[in-house]
Amino acid sequence: MIYNKITEQVLAAIKAIVGDDWVITAQPELEKYSHDETEDLHFYPEVVVKPCTAAQVSSLMKLCNENLIPVTPRGAGTGLSGGALPVMGGLVMAMERFNKVLQIDELNLQATVEPGVITEEFMNQVAEKGLLYPIDPASKGSCFIGGNVSHGSGGPRVVKYGTIREYILNLEVVLPSGEIIWTGANTLKYASGYNLTQLMIGSEGTLGIITKIVVKLIPRPTIDALMLASFTTNEAACAAVSAIFRAGIIPSALEFMERRGVEWVKENDGIAFDLKDGIGAFLLIEVDGTNQDVIFADCEKINHVLEEFDCKEVLFADTSAQKEELWRLRRTMAVSVKSNSVYKEEDTVVPRASLPELIKGIKQTGGKYGFESVCYGHAGDGNLHVNIIKGQMSDDDWNDKLKDGIREIFELTVSLGGTLSGEHGIGLVQKGFMAIKYNETHFALWRGIKQVFDKNGILNPGKIF
Amino acid sequence: MIYNKITEQVLAAIKAIVGDDWVITAQPELEKYSHDETEDLHFYPEVVVKPCTAAQVSSLMKLCNENLIPVTPRGAGTGLSGGALPVMGGLVMAMERFNKVLQIDELNLQATVEPGVITEEFMNQVAEKGLLYPIDPASKGSCFIGGNVSHGSGGPRVVKYGTIREYILNLEVVLPSGEIIWTGANTLKYASGYNLTQLMIGSEGTLGIITKIVVKLIPRPTIDALMLASFTTNEAACAAVSAIFRAGIIPSALEFMERRGVEWVKENDGIAFDLKDGIGAFLLIEVDGTNQDVIFADCEKINHVLEEFDCKEVLFADTSAQKEELWRLRRTMAVSVKSNSVYKEEDTVVPRASLPELIKGIKQTGGKYGFESVCYGHAGDGNLHVNIIKGQMSDDDWNDKLKDGIREIFELTVSLGGTLSGEHGIGLVQKGFMAIKYNETHFALWRGIKQVFDKNGILNPGKIF
Hints:
Two copies of one chain form a homodimer.
Chain A: H1 8-18, E1 23-24, H2 27-30, E2 47-49, H3 54-66, E3 71-74, E4 91-94, E5 101-105, E6 110-113, H4 119-127, E7 131-132, H5 145-151, H6 158-161, E8 168-174, E9 180-182, H7 196-200, E10 209-216, E11 218-219, E12 223-231, H8 234-246, E13 253-258, H9 259-269, E14 281-289, H10 292-308, E15 311-316, H11 320-331, H12 333-340, E16 343-349, H13 355-369, E17 372-378, E18 383-389, H14 395-415, H15 440-453
Parallel strand pairs in A: 2-4, 3-4
Antiparallel strand pairs in A: 1-2, 5-6, 6-10, 7-11, 8-9, 8-10, 12-14, 12-15, 13-14, 13-17, 16-18, 17-18
């Protein structure tokens, strides 16, 4: 695909659409839009544009489509796979002005929001009405809900409440042609033709630009309990995970954390936490509901299960401050790891009973290729984030040899029935590994679908495949 | 699209693939495959073939693709939108020999099944292991799980447990080209390229033929309570629905039944049920869980809500026999209506708070066009099955004038934020109404996707759009 540069004439047309104030071309201001949270990658766009209506997005898309200018949609820039990086230059469509919760429909337990709403702000607004939107990635305080939809984002509560796919009912989307459609209906069930809503979810901004989102809400659980279980080894902690479900419990969160991650959070975040010798890994387990007796019984059952898996200690959070502190331990881990070293994050996911084998294999691969890794993640979903630390590795090894190590980790993941990403998406950085799991038939179908939506290939080029 | 007839040569090739015993060409035996449960429609295929491996399906697809022979996949033939009708003749691919539960993986709470497994048999097998697969359409005793996936089927428990989209993790699919792929991974989360699993769900056998299904299972609730609430009017019953959720309850079923439907079940099925004068409609409400106190508290809360909506009586099922009898009332309603009259069934779905307006509009339209209707369905999901009764209507009115009435019902449905089908699919009989909700842009995207999977258009032609 050959793209054009943005000419003075096109730039003038862009300014006419959104107004001069919402167009950035100066290099220092472009910097913020040249990266997301993926490694230390930088790609500069030619221009950043901040529309605020679907009509403006439509006009911009038509203009770029006619002039073969690449368009990269961008949410909050918290992505971990490079999905928002404008690798071909061109225009970055920054969605930050789409920041309104348009409606919270308490009768239908639905909401209509714009894609640039910060996930946590939306969660708080619905919580005030006694409702729950349970899709809360670790970055919930800064990420946008539009980015969550585009990446199929998850977070700790998917394990009980289901994936984002269950909560996104309908989308207003601007296609590369500039046409504006609603993908489906504002209904809890849908069996009316190929499901375009589901196709958009996780398509990483390559098929269309989301301008409105209709979300399903549910009644909010009123109480919860949180416990932290300590194990001597990673494998022991991971082995306990599937047994908890087998005991008939669906926790509202079941998170795994490796000791090294906790150490770094302590150092970086100053969290007061008594990290005992001989402890190698933790499970952070939450149950929620509406009845104290049930919560208590669930905790007891979990405790019994943990005993069978050589759990050394179970710490119950008694106060909401303690709960917050334990959650902070988990939620800030990514940031702490990042601030300690150059790193690469892989988002492996396997059937949950295969977690012990996965983490064992990751460490073996690390030994073979000479890298340290810090693992944590949504163990209840079989979703393990693998943070590979540069540490003392030479730049050559980091940039070249490491690829083979990552490949081995993904080969293991796939051999266990898993895939390359559970919730971060493929974006730029995992693209090269897709052939480990998918064959030419998959690629041909994906390319074909892309072509149907975006015949000139202008939308977020260079991503996924 | 111009298709070819099946020649002697092609027939010989078909027989060579599956063996003579699994090929039907004699007219009397073809009759069973000429219809499903949709109205009184009949379309005869030229041949019915019963493969039992993906390799056989692949060989058949290649043969038909090369010879431009239409292929209509068929499950149990319980569909209500004509999806399994071979409207262009050709070959019916009957999946009844794909009838094995291949694995129930108790460690991962997953199962791998063939598409021709009867839904209820699968549910019973996992129930024996203390597990739940909650997608149980009214036809669960005879329908196939493969048909459920193809149509995005639902049933009463979607309201609590989520749609079939949340339970189908991975599919083995034979494409029209004969290529065999797995659409995704055996994982609870998936963010690895366009989601082909989700695209297959609800595609009504037009994109590929499903040969294996990986299913998510959950721990089974141990107790439940069932109540039947009586109201004087349809609108009163429907108005109570959204209030139940607003009170913080998510019932495991919330079904609406119109009086006329209950009358017909009584007549047809001989169910002993005291149908009191002045009662116009019912809600069948189930709550489930693991704790008797919680169930009891939920029932009390629901009772309070019902009182606010002019509920005349609440009947609690005390024994499992009583529960079964109440469920039979609901589950056999479709069959009872069918045995009483020629009818057409529409599968409207709206945001649940719009149900009162929907049912009022349906009755007004009935008055205007002179038809009686019997409504029932999954009110908790806003999903109302509208059975239009031929009764004394002339054949001319039934075949022609009625279309305008149905159109009005769908126009109302769409104006309320809803769509044409929540769980039955579009198939043949709703196809003509799709333009009420969808525009040329939607159709172009759908046709484009179809073309990517099936460039010769041989797979289930004449359906959806």
